[in-house]
Every structure is written in C-alpha cells, then in structure tokens.
Amino acid sequence: MEPTSGINFLNVSYFFGLLYDLATGGRVVSGRSFWADTSTFLSSIWLLITMLAFLISFAALAILIHSTIRMLETKRKDAERYKTIGAHAAEVKRDHSRWNHVVTLIESPSESDWRQAIIEADIMLDDLLTQLGYNGQTLGEKLKAVNPERFKTLDDAWEAHKVRNEIAHQGSTYRLTDHVAYRTIHKYENVMREHGEI
Length: 198
Hints:
This protein is mainly α. The chain has two domains: about 30-80; about 90-195, no CATH class. The protein has eight helices and two strands. It has a two-stranded antiparallel ribbon with strand order 1-2. It is rod-shaped. The chain starts with 11 loop residues before the first helix and ends with a helix.
C-alpha cells in the first residue's frame, strides 16, 4: 500500500483553540500575540483615519474662511452700490442738462434764443408743478392751485410765466429786451433753486 500524501484529517481542536485564543487574547503565534498584531493594524488604520480627518477639516476650514471673505466683499460691494445717497451726493448726481441748455440759450446774443430759453424754462416749471402734485390743464391753473406758504417763489413763477405768455401770444411782435429776458430767466432760476431742481 502506497502512503498517501497531504493532510488526511482535520484538527478541529486546533481551530477551536485559535478561536479561543482570539477571544481571550492569550495565544502566541510565531512569537507574537494575535491581539498585538491586530492592535497594531487597528492603530495604523486609526492613525490614517485621523490624518484624513485632519486634512478634510483643514480643507473645510480653508473653504469656510474663503467663502466668508468673499461673502463680506460681496456685501460691501452691494452696500456701496445700493446705499441711499446723501443730499450733497444727490445734488452732484442730479441731471442739470435741461437747465444748462436754458443758460446756453439766454447767454446767446440772439433774441430768438432768449425767447426759446424762456419757453424751455416755462416747460421745466410746468414739469416741476406736476411733480409736486399740482393739477390743472395749463400752467396757470397749476399755479393757482399752489399754496403760497409752501412755495416762497410763487410770485417769481407768476411773473416769469406772464412773460412767456406774452411771447407765446404776441410772437415776433413782442419786443424782448435783454434786460427782460435775463430778469425772467433769473425768476425761473429762483423757483428751480427753491425746489432743488438746479
């Protein structure tokens, strides 16, 4: 009979011994404790997890700091863009182009330009009264509705408007002197300055 090679039996007590030693931590395999090997392996894994957690936390903190800085910059830019401007800044930003055109016309040596300056200033006065909430079909009706207590330059407005009416009704037959033209524009100017239009 030929001898058979290999293991022909199962040592169940050996495997149970290993399980027992694993549970109790007492058996030494190849000169080292099984629990010592396991503990070293778990410590290495824990160290790796700790380092990864530290790196992730550092990255999250960097992102948080960056996001906070960007948010503060955005808020500052928005506050600058949407802030309520002060009275002085509003005066600087106000569009004076219409009045500047009137001034250009009145400074001309031409009588027709003076007439045009008075007509343009009268239109500005009409727009101003509409903005202030005075109703009427004509500028005269709006001026009649004005409360003199709240409109200190009402007399100037009336006098200037009367000159404009003379120009409109008489046309080229109305003799407009430079003195009358300048005085009329000055009265319009007083009204516009009172109400912050120029």
